[in-house]
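User: My instructor asked us to take a sequence, write out its structure as tokens, and then describe one feature of it. I'm not sure where to start. Here is the sequence I was given:
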Amino acid sequence: MTTHALILPLQIAGLLHLVLICAGATMPSAVSLSGHLAVLPVFIRRLFYVYYAFIGMLLVGFGCLTFLFADTLASGVGLARAVCLLLTAFWALRLAAAAFIFDVRPYLTNWFYRAGYQAINVIFLYLLAVYVLAAWKGGSL
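Assistant: Let's start with the prediction itself. The structure tokens for your sequence are:
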């Protein structure tokens, strides 16, 4: 795959990070998060919200970097490959967490939530594939 051919898939990946932000914004109401957190001590509740915000900021950062610097990430230079490998690890671990740690079945109460959950997993797979491809084939002629 040529450097030029990687740019559009990377830009799509950048935009998909922002789609995940929108999906993540719906999660608190979908799982009645405030009710679950209400029984926790204030410190733990705030810690959760801080982690939630940091993950959101990471997704915005990953998305903006990928979209705005898609040509650089596709170039295959050392730092570009390192960033792509970091993002590969991030999304591989996120997929592993979805498969082996999180049991979301109790919250998939209607077709919309089930479809959304499957769509999110497809996005995770797409992101993983694009970053693997960019790390492996970036800079090819």
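For the description part of your assignment, you could build on this observation: The chain has one domain: 3-137. Try explaining in your own words what that tells you about the chain.
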